[in-house]
Amino acid sequence: MSLIIDKQTLDDLNIFGKRDNDAVYAIFNRTYTRGGAGILEQFFRYPLADLHAIDARIRTIRFFLMHQTAFPFRGELFDAAESYLADTDERSRLSAQDNTLGRKFSQVIGADTSYQQLIKGIGSLIEVFILLKQFINSLDITVQDTPYAAAIKPIQEILLQRQFEPVLQEKVPIKIDYEKATVYDRLLRFVHITDVRKILDAVYTLDVYISVATVARSRGFVFPVPLPAEAHIMEIEGLYHPKLSKPVANDMAMRPDSNIVFLTGANMAGKSTFMKSLGIAVFLAHVGFPVPASRMRFSVCDGLLTTINLPDNLNMGYSHFYTEVLRVKKMAMELEHAKNLFIIFDELFRGTNVKDAYEATVAITSAFASQPNCMFVVSTHIMEAGEKLMEDCKNIQFVYLPTLMEGDKPVYPHKLEQGITSDRHGMVIINNEGILDILRNGKF
Q: Are 158 and 285 found together in one domain?
C-alpha cells in the first residue's frame, strides 16, 4: 500500500529536484549500479503506507548499517550484463553449429566484436552469480532476525537450482570457451531469463540498502520508529533540513488533542524551511529511510500533501488565489476519502487581500480542526487569525519563529517558540536595503 502523494508535494519538498544535486533523492543515491538508482527512485515515487512494510525496510537497512556492509560487486559488471540481456533476438543466440574455422580465426585476432560483447556479458552474469552466493553465505547469523532473511530466501532457492550448478563452479576471473558460452547463453539469456532478472533485482535492491545505510552513517541520520495509524502521533526531536550546511534543529510533537500546528513568523524567519524540513522527514519515514533528526516516532499516514511553493496556473488563466482555492479543495476531497492525512500549507491565501485572507484562514483552519484523525501544519503572517483560532479551537498548538533586533538589523534564530508573534519587519528590511533612497535620488 502506497502513501498518497502528488507532484506538488514532491516539488515542494524538492524530492527529485530540477537539478539532481539539489534533490533529496541525490542525498541517498550512493548506489554503484544503474539498476540500484532505478529501484531507489521507485522507493521515492511510491512511499509506503503500511506499518509492517515500513518497519521491515527500516530493520533491513539498520542491519547493513550495524555491519557496515560493503557492496560486494564491481559496478561495471552490470552495464555489461544489462547490455547482454537487452538483446533478446534469437538470431544473436550462440550456436554450436556456428563454431566454424572462420569464427575461430576471428576470435583469435579479436575481429568478432559482437561475439566478444556476448562473452563479456555472459562472464559478467556468471561473476554476479558467484559473488552473490558468496555474499549470502558470508552473512552473519543475525540476518535471520531481520526481514532480509525472508527476502533473500527465493534468491537462495534459485542459486540452488541444478541448472545453475555449472555456473557457480566457474572461477573468477571468468574464462570460458565457445562450447561453454553456447550453453550459458541459452541458459542465462533465453531459458531462465526470469530467474536471472530476479537475481539482478536482488542485487540492485541490496545496492540501495547498502547505499542508504552508508548515508545514515556518514550524515548521522536516525531511523524513525513507526507506530500504528490509530495512535495519531508525530514526535520529532532535533529536526533539520538535510540540504543546509549549518541547520538549526527544532522539536515538534503532535497528538490527537494538538493535531494542528499554527505557525507564525516574519518574512525570512524560517517558516518555509521548517515546513519543508518537517515534510521531508515525514516523507522519508514513510519510505522506510533514516531521517535528518535526533529522534522520531510517527504514526503511519495514508497520505502526505503540501502546499509551499504553489505556482500560478497561467495556462488555465487562474490567479494565484484561485490556484490556492483549488489546492485547498483538492485537500478537502482527499480528506473525504482518506482516514489519516498529514497536510502542510504555507501561508494560506497569500494571493488575496488581508481581510479575505484572514477570514479564509480562520474558516479553513477551523474546518481542519474538525478532523481529529489527521495532522495539519498551517503558517500565516496574519497574527489576528491566530488570535481568533486560539479562542475557538482547543486542539491547535501555536508556535512561532522569532525575529530579534540588533539595532536596526533583524536577526533570525530559526528556533521555534510557543505562542503567536506579531513580528513584522518588512519595512525595516526595505529601509536597510536603501530602496527608498535609491528611488528618491535616482534619475529616470
A: no
